[in-house]
Amino acid sequence: MPVLVITGTGTEVGKTVVTAAVAATALAAGRSVAVLKAAQTGVRPDEPGDAAEVARLAGPVTTAELARYPEPLAPATAARRAGLAPVHPHEVAEAAAKLATEHDLVLVEGAGGLLVRFDAAGGTLADAARLLSAPVLVVAPAGLGTLNSTELTARELRSRGLEPAGIVIGSWPTAPDLAARCNLADLPDVAGAPLLGSVPAGSGVLAPTVFRAAAPQWLAPRLDGSWDAEAFRVREAPGAF
User: Fold this and answer.
1) What is the pLDDT of residues 111-134, one digit of tens each?
2) Catalytic residue among 5, 10, 37, 99
3) Could you tell me the pTM of the whole model?
């Protein structure tokens, strides 16, 4: 799995922290890692973006960012309003492929959900994943409403000939409600893909050393970690199913 594309079911679902956890876990397993942010929005030129945040939390990864736009909008809209060149899916694919020649694992982090537009032609992260023939990891929220957006994302991937690598819950609450507990069984069912991890809420504010030590416990063996979906269900959702 030299290239792994990471998308969310929407914005603010924990995608960057999950990317950092995947990176930290791969580093702990002895793999070299690069993180490619296809398009960074809502950040000034002198501010650290998502790729820098992944490096802060995960450790020594190579970071790359193809474009940056100041307003927190979809990349195509932000590029148009700023009078800047947009990012195209083939540019994302080419950059990821080059990084893959120099690293064991390349993580391509999208902006928002799978079909957020990069350019005026409607190019998306899904198009870049198809060009790369890369698996796509879907980051989903824990609670009410996540089943619909997760199933739609998985269906769209399959309609493009792509398989979701799995689902990671981006922010698991300390006191999960009934919907969140039931979703531990329902998410893999609606997505037709396995649960590959669950990142505790608030993990992004942990000290980097603490984050790196804990990250492998949040992700399944397929992502180099030790997280067990069934054991997690038994512990976090007794009696929910």
Assistant:
1) 989 999 999 999 999 999 999 999
2) 37
3) 0.95
